[in-house]
Structure formats: structure tokens, C-alpha cells
Write a structure and sequence with these properties.
The structure holds 2 protein chains of 2 kinds.
Chain A (H helix, E strand, L loop, with lengths): L6 H4 L1 H5 L20 H27 L7 H13 L4 H17 L5 H16 L15 E7 L5 H14 L4 E4 L8 H12 L3 E2 L7 H14 L4 E4 L9 H17 L6 E7 L5 H13 L3 E5 L9 H8 L4 E5 L7 E3 L2 H9 L6
Helix pairs in contact in A: 3-4, 3-13, 4-5, 5-6, 6-13, 7-8, 9-10, 11-12
Chain B lengths: L2 H12 L9 H17 L4 H15 L10 H17 L14 E7 L5 H14 L5 E5 L7 H12 L2 E3 L7 H14 L4 E5 L8 H14 L3 E7 L5 H12 L4 E5 L8 H10 L3 E5 L7 E3 L2 H8 L5 H11 L2 H12 L6 H13 L2 H6 L10 H5 L2 H13 L3 H5 L6 H11 L3 H34 L7
Parallel strand pairs in B: 1-4, 1-5, 2-3, 2-4, 5-6, 6-7
Antiparallel strand pairs in B: 7-8
Helix pairs in contact in B: 1-2, 1-4, 2-3, 3-4, 4-11, 5-6, 7-8, 9-10, 14-17, 17-19, 19-20
Classes of the chains: A alpha/beta, B alpha/beta.
Amino acid sequence: MIGLFKKSRTNPEDVSTDTAASAAPSEAGDTPDNRSPKGFFSRLTQGLSKTSRAMTEGIATLVQGKRKIDDELLEELESRLLMADVGVEATQRILDALMRNAAAQDLKDADALLQALRQAMVEVLAPIQQPLEITPTGGPFVILVVGINGAGKTTTIGKLAKHLQLLGHSVMLAAGDTFRAAAVEQLKTWGERNQIPVIAQGQGADSASVIYDALQAATARKVDVLIADTAGRLHTQSNLMEEMKKVSRVITRLDETAPHQTLLVVDAGTGQNALNQAREFNRALDLTGLVVTKLDGTAKGGILFAIAEQLGIPVRFIGVGEGIDDLRPFDAEEFVSALLELDPPA
Amino acid sequence: MFDNLTQRLQGTLDRLRGQARLTEENIQQSLREVRMALLEADVALPVVRDFINRVKEQAVGQEVIQSLTPGQTLIKIVHDELIALMGKANEELSLNTQPPAVILMAGLQGSGKTTTTAKLARFLKERKHKKVTVVSCDIYRPAAIKQLETLAREIDVDFFPSSLEQAPLAIAKAAQEHARLKFHDVLIVDTAGRLHIDAAMMDEIQQLHAQLQPIETLFVVDAMTGQDAANTAKAFGDALPLTGVVLTKADGDARGGAALSVRHITNRPIKFMGMGEKTGALEPFHPDRVASRILGMGDVLSLVEEAAHKTDQEQAKKLAKKLQKGKSFDLNDLREQLLQMQKLGGVAALMDKVPGMNKLPTEVRERDNDRELGRMLAILNSMTPKERRQPDIIKASRKRRIAAGSGTQVQDVNRLLKQHLQMSKMMKQFSKGGMHKMMQAMKGQMPFRM
């Protein structure tokens, strides 16, 4: 049923060794044509379907027939939201808003209530649905990518580079993760796959200086977009957060409008701590966007509601797989609909 | 990492003061708070429900013990249940098999398998004196094999090379043969991160398991994982006969509820915690101590053990002997102490484990303390051996020289001398059997009035 995300596994060599060719739509159901609104939605739905399943298994049975709205139903809805990592506070706020609506609109049955719930949830996320735009800057458009260890920064950069290439931009990568063993090689592999240059020094080099060099190289070669990788760091490690601020400052020294985007990569499997991560990285760097990765598992990414309410950082992309094409622009309506397994409103 | 849960519970239980008996009514609010706290700590909802029910069963009707407040009584029950949930004692790796003992690592993408593989290899090599081979079966993630190779070189353990063209099963088989021929004690097999719903990949790791017959199959899980920990733990636990769990990235400020969820759902002990990116940052997991930390009692026991391991036993003995003989604690001794502190990972790592200290904001704890440590050492290093033996001879002119030599101010030197004086007074009390008194004094600073 969800064979879509198994493709890279049944034929591992495709992903690991095949470089340029992996751009070809060899994987089942992953043709570029799927980007038509309907195809895209079904894909997103599939990406989130496991997400929704846990939630909606309950919800589907909950709303079967014209069930009445009672405390038990609400408690069940609460549980489902909590299990989607929406968090205690955000869940409470969403349900409060829902009940106000229910009273105002005189909702009678569970089905209507569920539609209202979807509406209430979309309202929370709508403001942070802002696609990434590459604007002319007079030099390379610099995207700095940060996040904690294992969130999926390097993989996201590989996919993002491909995405931007398809939009017709020339792209260069900067291997700013000089700490983790073989991080540079990992980025270089992505560079080879996309056939784009990667500026790197060895492991242990100064991250800021690598990115500085890369920006100079990107400027000289008139590259449209420079994507800078950084080492994973926990937001509680103040020295590493300082180091990251330095990277950003050094970029600004070459181009005072840069970095033009500072993206935080967050693992959808992360629980309430994702809010802390977003808050601390935002405090250090003034984030301009989020990328939520690993939404192809059973993780629910419900923490986005708290992030939207408390920080309002735009979500630029979601990651729904390890394939080079598995990066999608974030769409609140579809995210919520897919989460609740409802058809999007026409 | 458990700081926030601690704070939450502290606030809740304060409200219970002055009750004589725990009833369903008077603990309801507290239990609701405990429930919220656990949810906020990312404990999976089904696990929270079980837990609350167990606490309620235990608590209702319970007389408040004379020496405790009602809050403390409930906290004791919560604490005991937490320990019961997380397992009784630290369980070590079992490697009793015909060598090489195979350890298979499994987990989601980005949970920290490769780093943990290296940490574990170092742990087994240095603390258990095992000959270890590591191998990577991750032919999917770019440069994953290279990552393990680099780490293996860093910690100087045997790395069995593999390549993208090989099948994971073939790699595993060859590595096992290699370790056997070299008479190595342990083979750690790193695997690709995989989604628990990816049938093909789950099948692959089941085959790896069947082939390797590992004595330990460790599930590696990120301490920051949310509710999904329940799903992944269940799926991995169903697919593989797990023998234990490694909780990674536990040095952050995540509330660590995943530890409870995974433990409860897999019913397998958490054997280690990853406490940092460096290969030395792996600690045995002590459920009782972590439960204590959740409740704000600090992790004093872990600290003691770590200190015992890393400090030089000989030097400690020498110092003790010296003090017993009535000799004073001189600046050489202070220098040794500071050096050992540095070895333990600096002030921040120490403070994390001291009761009450977790109430300080993280920034305050980390900032400057380690720089201060370095500065003190610089001052001590700028003294002559004679000055360190007889601090009394350090007068104005020597102070100026020391300050210049260490790049500090005379005030800094003065401050250090004063601190030393206070410490040596304290040490004298120690040697007069003042330990008991000292503990009494410290008790007053415990977060709970016990």
C-alpha cells in the first residue's frame, strides 16, 4: 500500500552508487509528473499516511455514523493530538478553539466536528506556510543550514540542491561540517549525484573559513545559490552555538545581506524538544525557515503547531524520504488534511 | 536533560503540603500534573496511562509517613514507580559467548548508531580490555562507511573495510570470519538507519540477525524522540529480539520521556546513554539514578563512579595519606585536583550531576567556568615548585611575577590563594573525621527537605 517509500531499499545501488542517473524517475511513482496538484497531494498524503493512520484509526471509528459530540469524543480527540506530538498546551488551545466554534456554529455530529477541527488546525499553520523564494541579490543567494545532530541536514541539502537546480538555478555546496567524521565525504557524494561543485577542506578545518572560501568561490563563478552545511550541534552547547554565530557573521562580512536564508532542519520524530531547538537556534541566528524531515515514517510532526504559535517561523519544506526528490514545499492545508486523512476542500 | 520534568514535579507536589493521608481526591490534581509533565516530557501516551494507574493504585489510602510531607510521600511513590518502570539496576553488556561476541546495532536514521558504535568500541577496549573489530553494513547513506572508518582510526580499534558494492549480509559474514581468525573478542556491526515501516529494510536486518546470531542486539534511540518512540520501539522489538537500548543525545535539554516509553514497550533495559559527540561520552545507564535525577536529586552516584574511574587512584591515596599525617593541602595538591576536574569534562559536566545545580540556567552553568578552571591552572603553573609547596612565601613581588607569567592580574592570584586557604581549612576538617559534619551541611542544600 505504501510501496512508494520502499523504492530505494529494494534497489539499494540505485541510491548509493548511481549518481547522475538517480535524477531519472526510475523509482516507482516518483515521476516529475507527480507534481501536478493532485499527484502531489496523493504523494504527500502517502508520506503522511502512516502519520495519520495512528491518529485516524481512532478518528475514523470515532466519527462513524452521526456520533454525538460528548466528553468521551473530545477526550479521544485530545489523546490523538497528544499522540501526534502536538503537545499539551497546543492541544488544549486547538480543542478550546474547536469547542468555541462548535458552540457558535451549532455543530451536531462528530463528522462536522472533525471538519471544524481540520479548519482550526489549518488556521494555526497557515501563517507559516511560506515557500522558499530565491530572490536576486546581486551575488550568490546564501542558504545556511543548521540543526542538531542527526536531524538530516546533509540529506536535506542534497535534496534542496536538486530542487533548486530543477528550478534553473546554478548551485554550489559548502562543506561546513568539519567536525563529524566523513561529513565532508557525505556532502561530496550528494554533490556528485547532482553534479554540482562542493567546496571543502579537511575534517577539523575551521567551519567559518570553509564557508568564507566557498562564498568567495561562488561569487567568482557567478553561482546563483550557495548552500552551506554546518556541523550538527545541540542547542544547549553554548560554545558550539557561538561557533555557529561566527559562521553567520563571517558570511555577513562578505555580503551584508547574507545569509539570505537560515534554515533549521528538524526531525519530525522529535517530541516537544523541537520547540526548544527552534527557540534556541532562532535566538542565536534569526532563523528564516524550517525544514521538517523524516515525515515518511510514523512520526507526526505535531510540534509544528506549537512552533507556529510561539515562534511563527515559516516552514519551507518537508522531507518525505531519502530519495533525491523527496523534498516538498510545505502546505498547511494538505499537511493537516493528510494528517487527518480527509479530502482537501475543493 | 530531565531538568524540566523535575521542575514540573516539584511545583506540583509542593501543593500537597499539609495533608495527612493521600486520597483519590487530594492526589487527583497532582496526578493530572504528573500526567501533563510526563506528556510534556514526551513519554508516550499509552505508557503515561499505565504509569498513572500504577501510581494511583499505590498511592490511594497510603498514610503519610511521619517524617515526610504528603508531597514527599507521593514523590516517593512516583519515584519508586519510575524506577520500577525503568528497570531495577544497570544491566551490563553480556559478552559471554564463544568469541567473537557480536553486537548488532539497529535504529532509525540519525539516531546515532555510528557514533555509538565507536563509543561502544572505545568503552569495551578501554574499560573491559577487549579486542574489538567494528564493521559498517550501511551501504545506503553516503560516506557512512567512511565515517566509521575515521572514528575507528581515531580510537585505534580494528576496522573491517566494506564497500557499497557488497551486500550487507556478505559484509557481515566476512567481518565475522575476520574477527574469528584474528581472535578478537567483540565484533560490533553498525547498520544503516531504517524506518520501522520499511518492510524490505526490516527484513534485511532480520536476516543480518539470523546470520550473525548476535549476543547483544541494541536498539539505538534518540533521547529527544517524541510520541513516535512507542511506534518505533514496538516495531523494532517485534522484528528483532532486542537485548538492550542505547539512549543517545541525552546531554541536551530533552526531557527524555523516550527512555520511559522505550523501556516500557520493549521491556528491555537501557544499557547506555550517549552524553556528547566525542567518543568518550558514553555512560552506563543507571535507572535508579536517572529516576532520582528526574526528581531533582542529582546524579551524585554517577558522578562518584565516573570520578573513581577517571581520577588517578594512586594520587588520591597519596593525598589522603598526606592529609592523615596532618600535612597541609598545598598548592600542588590543588593543582592535581584541578587537573582531575578538567579530565572529568570540566565544571559544566560536574555541575550537571550535583543536586540543585540543575536549577541554574544552562548558560550560567556552562559559561566561563571552564575558562576559570584554565586560568587557575595557568596561575598554578606559573609558580615555582617551592612556591607551590609553601604558599606562605608568595608575597607582592612573586605575585606580580606569577600574574605576568600566567597572563592574569595580581587580584586573580590573590583570589586563588584565598580559595586555597579556605580549601585547606576544609581539608583539615576532613582529615579530622569531619566528613559527617560536612554531609550534614550539604544536606541543607538538597532540593527536597527530606
